[in-house]
Design brief:
- The structure holds two protein chains of two kinds.
- Chain A is mainly α.
- Chain A folds into two domains: about 110 residues, D-Maltodextrin-Binding Protein, domain 2, CATH 3.40.190; about 240 residues, no CATH class.
- Helix content of chain A is about 65%, strand content about 5%.
- Chain A is built from 18 helices and four strands.
- In chain A, helix 17 crosses helix 18.
- By secondary structure, chain B is of the alpha/beta class.
- Helices cover about 35% and strands about 30% of the residues of chain B.
- Chain B has a six-stranded mixed beta sheet with strand order 5-6-7-3-8-9, sandwiched between helices. A four-stranded antiparallel beta sheet of chain B has the order 11-12-10-13, covered by helices on one side. Chain B has a three-stranded antiparallel beta sheet with strand order 2-1-4, covered by helices on one side.
- The chains are: A mainly alpha, B alpha/beta.
- Chains A and B meet through helix 1, helix 10 and helix 18 of A and helix 3 of B.
Chain lengths: ~425, ~300
């Protein structure tokens, strides 16, 4: 056990201090910081010239006064509209309107033109410096005009209440059978159906899957290249006479795992600090996300599957690394493993909207794909506790089996130099070495 | 002196090919044992079996009476032929690491490392990375890595190859020091003069079989003395016509005379004394080089 600690410590210390690790980690942390600031920066640049939002002129007179009123009242009824309206005089005189707009520092003005027939709703035109409508203005003007149009057409035929009804969109809701019958017991692991619609659940599952995919692949490659470089620098011959291959392999896997955890911790801290900044918090609340809704059970299960899945992949990466003699050949050798983790990732991602499909059910019991698909099922689908238990047991059994196999391959592989051996050669060598 | 490392009838096969065929040898405490053989004769396989990297198909290997195990692992030091250390890691860190893997604690390992660096006149490499060192110095570090934990059994595969004479002497001194302290050293090399200087017993392997084994002096006595070195004041002629003489080379500064057997030596001396003043006359014992070539080379014909 003591020697395992020594191997873990050495691996961790040397990996963390490499330039490539430090640079990648800092660079990614910087990119994350920038990424989180993007919404804030966009807001800063676009909304920069006036704090109170856009002021828009309404050039309406005569028969259009009522439409202008409708628009104003609609906009003022919106919860967080940043558009305010100012009435302008002198309809039709472009020069006069422009002068007024400039004087009052308006973003632009809206004018109306009579449509084809008499009594038809007029066409509206937004006139501004650059001749386009900004998205936030459009978002207010379009529905305001629709509303004004409805009132314009229907005001004689319908009552106020009817018009109001006409203008509210029809409602469509989703719920599960369990909710309908009121029976939510028997579903272990994940709590009731209301949580499932929570966007936080979706985000958690998505993040966990992506995290698993990237760390399985990146740390896996790290382990494989560590083993290969030890082999190619021939330090392996000394190592293997000092420590048992199993200790060596597990030490390496755990050491690199800790490196990966450190990296994730750095990223997590970066994100957390950035989100804590007061100005970013406002932007975040604009996305309607609430971290207090974070599904703890999904996170805990996610962690279990993450660690187990990591070990399964990492052990195999170590075995592959031991077969290859030169770092140049490594990329080709790890391709099957990369494919496997890609498959696990894509099955999970493409089934996010349909977590109860047969494919997902099968995949969530297959050790290589269960770390991603099981999280999706726990977080988004319906699952029984025993299913999770069976999947964990299967994953554990797979770790034992592939750990044993990897140790054998490792033991044989590290002594074989030259070209990458085929499975047949490897088996022959295993027999010859009596491993 | 007790036998520390004992191999009995060890056989190793790779498929249909027998890599090592019935090798037996004993290495005592405080002994350097030479394992010689042409390339591919089975030296490395034998060493790997001793190291527990591969298991013999038949026969036994014991270490001070015990079978291979975790304790043996800590007691063994190994300098592989293709030696290597981590290129990008500091000398101090990796050697202390390797010593810890062999069961030393950090402080002891550091002390031992400093002792050896000092011995090899290499104190300034303590904080250097391996890739910054010359090839010869890298080898010295490899040697230190093999002995830093004071092993009782030391396995040196081509320990001196590629070193300049000064460094060879340094390393020889170190090996002798370890022998004085009681280490059992299994030593393989192609340089016969090193074997003659260091080893008491040898085994010569050829194509996986033992062709010659035993004490070097006894082995030499088994081989006939077939060479005479003669130095005279003035040229000597007609030696080649004496009975038993098969060839004469050289000049008065040093004739090398090949003879069929030792009985031809005396007539040569008499004849030389008759013609000139003899300054040096020696019936040379066969060198290990000659013995090696005779026992291995002739089979290759």
């Amino acid at each position: 056990m003591n020697r395992l600690g020594t191997v873990v410590g050495f691996t961790f210390k040397n990996k963390v201090r490499t330039k490539s690790f430090v640079i990648t980690t800092l660079l990614l942390a910087l990119l994350m910081t920038i990424g989180i600031h993007v919404p804030f920066l966009i807001q800063l640049f676009t909304g920069g010239n006036d704090e109170g939002g856009d002021r828009i002129g309404l050039a309406a007179s005569g028969e259009y006064t009522e439409i202008a009123q409708q628009i104003e009242s609609y906009a003022s009824g919106l919860p967080d509209s940043d558009v305010t309206f100012v009435r302008l005089d002198g309809t039709g005189d472009a020069a006069a309107l422009k002068r007024q707009a400039d004087d009052q520092d308006l973003a632009g003005y809206l004018e109306f033109e009579a449509g084809g027939e008499a009594g038809a709703f007029p066409a509206a035109r937004y006139v501004s410096e650059n001749g386009s409508i900004p998205a936030n203005v459009q978002a207010v003007l379009q529905p305001a005009l629709e509303s004004a149009k409805t009132t314009f057409i229907a005001q004689d035929a319908l009552s106020e209440a009817q018009i109001a009804q006409l203008m509210t969109p029809a409602r469509l809701q989703a719920s599960s059978y369990n909710e309908q019958t009121g029976a939510s017991s028997g579903t272990g692991g994940a709590s009731g159906g209301e949580d499932k619609l929570n966007p936080m659940n979706f985000i958690t599952v998505y993040v966990l899957m992506t995290l698993f995919f990237f760390s399985a692949m990146l740390t896996g490659n790290m382990i494989a290249s560590e083993v290969t470089s030890e082999k190619s620098s021939r330090v392996m011959e000394i190592l293997i006479t000092s420590v048992s291959p199993l200790t060596q392999m597990f030490g390496k896997v755990i050491g690199v795992f800790l490196v990966g955890l450190l990296q994730i911790a750095v990223f997590g801290a970066t994100i957390a600090i950035n989100l804590m900044l007061p100005y970013n918090r406002n932007v975040l609340s604009g996305f309607d996300l609430d971290f207090s809704q974070l599904p703890v059970d999904v996170l805990i299960y996610g962690l279990i599957f993450y660690i187990l899945g990591y070990f399964l992949y990492a052990l195999l990466y170590a075995a592959v690394g031991s077969i290859v003699s030169r770092t140049e050949d490594l990329g080709q050798a790890v391709t099957p493993l990369t494919m496997l983790s890609l498959a696990a990732f894509y099955i999970g991602i493409f089934s996010l909207s349909n977590p109860n499909s047969l494919l997902m059910k099968i995949a969530s019991f297959v050790p290589f794909t269960s770390p991603t698909t099981m999280i999706a099922r726990i977080g988004l689908g319906e699952i029984h506790l025993w299913e999770i238990a069976v999947s964990v047991v299967l994953l554990g059994a797979a770790i034992f089996f592939f750990g044993w196999l990897s140790a054998k391959i490792y033991r044989t592989g590290v002594l074989m130099y030259g070209k990458r051996p085929s499975f047949k050669e490897l088996r022959k060598a295993m027999k010859a070495y009596k491993i | 002196m007790a036998e520390r490392l004992v191999l009995r009838d060890v056989i190793k096969r790779y498929g249909d090919k027998t890599a090592v065929d019935r090798i037996s040898l004993d290495v005592h405490e405080g002994e350097i044992y030479g394992l010689l053989g042409a390339n591919g004769a089975g030296k490395t396989t034998t060493m790997r079996m001793v190291l527990g990297l591969i298991y013999p198909d038949d026969g036994s290997i014991t270490y001070g009476g015990h079978a291979y195990g975790g304790d043996v692992q800590r007691d063994v030091g190994y300098l592989p032929e293709e030696r290597g250390l981590y290129p990008k890691v500091k000398v101090s860190e990796q050697i202390v690491y390797l010593a810890k893997l062999r069961g030393m604690n950090g402080a002891e390992a550091d002390k031992s490392l400093r002792y050896w660096l000092n011995k090899f006149d290499a104190d300034e490499y303590y904080d250097k990375r391996i890739e910054e060192l010359s090839k010869g110095n890298q080898q010295k570090m490899g040697f230190i890595a093999a002995v830093v934990h004071r092993p009782n059994i030391l396995i040196l595969d081509e320990a001196f190859s590629g070193l300049d004479p000064v460094n060879v002497e340094l390393l020889k001194l170190a090996v002798k020091e370890l022998r004085e302290e009681g280490a059992s050293i299994l030593f393989s090399t192609h340089r016969m003069e090193h074997v003659e200087e260091l080893c008491r017993s040898i085994t010569i392997l050829d194509r996986s079989k033992t062709v010659l084994q035993g004490d070097i002096r006894e082995i030499k006595q088994r081989f006939p003395r077939e060479q005479i070195l003669l130095k005279t004041l003035s040229p000597v002629s007609g030696l080649e016509s004496l009975p038993g003489v098969t060839g004469v080379e050289g000049d008065p500064e040093g004739y090398t005379i090949r003879i069929a057997d030792e009985s031809a030596a005396l007539p040569v001396l008499t004849e030389a004394m008759r013609q000139s003043e003899v300054r040096h006359f020696e019936v040379k014992e066969p060198t290990l080089n000659q013995i090696f070539i005779r026992s291995v080379g002739e089979r290759h014909e």
